[in-house]
Amino acid sequence: MAYYFNGKRINALNRLVIEIVKKYVSEHPNISYIDLKKVFRDEIGGSRGIIKNKQDFEIWKQNIKDPEKRFFIKDNEIVKLANDEVYINQGWGGDWQDSKSGKIKEGNKKRFLEFAKNELHYEIEIDSINEEEKDLIREDKNILNIKNIILYGAPGVGKTHNYQNLISMIEEGKSQKEIFDTISQNEKVSLNDEIFQTIQDEKRVEFVTFHQSYSYEDFIEGFRPNENGNIELEDGIFKRVSAKAINQVKEKELKHISFDEAYDIFRTSFINEELETLKKVTGASIIIHDVKEKTILLQSENAKDSQYVKKNDLGTVVNAMLRDKIHKPVDIKNLDVKKDTISLSDFYYPLAKKIVEIIKKNRVDVKNEKNFYIVIDEINRGNISKIFGELITLIEEDKRDIYEVTLPYSKEKFKVPSNLYIIATMNSTDKSIATIDIALRRRFTFLKMKPNLELVKNDSARECMQELNNYITAKLSEDYQLGHSYFMNVQNDEDLIFVKEYKIKPLLEEYFYADEKSADEIMKEVLREK
């Protein structure tokens, strides 16, 4: 299990708790110990609490039965306050996962993660094979599960601009709610311009415009003449981008965590009293007294003396075992280790086996799965059923990666990958909007975009836009309102006159083509024409 917080990968919850306390203190540098205790309340950490200053720590030590238990490690991590210093609870085990059922138990770990997420509003990612554990903080944040989106609105509302924002926000891992609220409200959003540029450079986005003559053969596959005049089968843009997305998933790789990371997990398991009993090859149990940063103090059952195992030499044994060079304790003598290590091979061997087990159980991505995008401009101008053909069903979110069809020309098996987003734009004033294929309506999520006056800085331009849209809404509907992009670059009256004459007037003449009276009225009252 690993956690991602504040730009770091953290391999154990006790380390995560330390990082969270440190971050909170850095954000509140003048906070007192009493006020910090009110935030990191004892009940969240169970009977031991979360933080203690030196005075409380000494009192706590006197009241526990076994003061050697390192629930608070004094010399490990001390968080300094303005006028005090605090120790952090290192014991977060025994109340998370039932050893028999494997189910998550309501307890300190869950309480702390929910506290950090809901009260401190910190973003924490969990990398674990346990899906129940991930669900604690995943919600709908990490992946936008809606894969088919249509941005629609009147001319000039920024549909083309916002599809880039939409893609950038998906790449940044924004929540579904934040993405949809930002795009639908046409909010000005601060995004890293390099994100979309990187996607383009990596050729993960394709752009196409639908029109009446656009076909299945253009979009999926079809026979076309080559440069020599011969007919050959050619993949369409949708098939090509789908193949890229599928191949990228296949290239996804995993690697084992490092020895140091595995040692940290082993040490945390000991601190949390979750470490199972280790045995020598003879069957004798090994009693572990302490796991420090560089050594492990242990002894064999019924033995009088304790022994120290060195972390460095243990790492050598582990690496040899991973390379399949160690099969029994006696093999350790062939390694470049000290004599005392060889003499303690019956300890090193089971410890190394346990570390190797931890390494193999904990794997991390070295190549994250990337998203691909196809942007379809003016999607409603094409014959959707004709263009998508049999793939119209496969683009549904719950059909992706599962269902496949045989393509009619190539006879290849084909499925739509889940890491492919279909983002389309549509003009709400287009007369063909009413004829949108029902199949398309059902399989896409429609995100309406409205004009945003706040994006127009010039007062005269903003007033003109408001008057025009009030009139248009009264005479037609809000679907015909003019977007802010017509007015955003207006800096003076001369610019506004140009926009009115060469951008607004032709559009209004089209709007009121059959209503000469309304056309004359808006020209005189709003555009101030004589």
From TrEMBL:
This is ATPase dynein-related AAA domain-containing protein. InterPro entries: ATPase_dyneun-rel_AAA (IPR011704), Methyl-DNA_Rec/Restrict_Enz (IPR052934), P-loop_NTPase (IPR027417). It comes from the Bacteria. Residues 370-444 form the ATPase dynein-related AAA domain. GO terms for molecular function: ATP binding; ATP hydrolysis activity. It comes from Sulfurimonas sediminis.
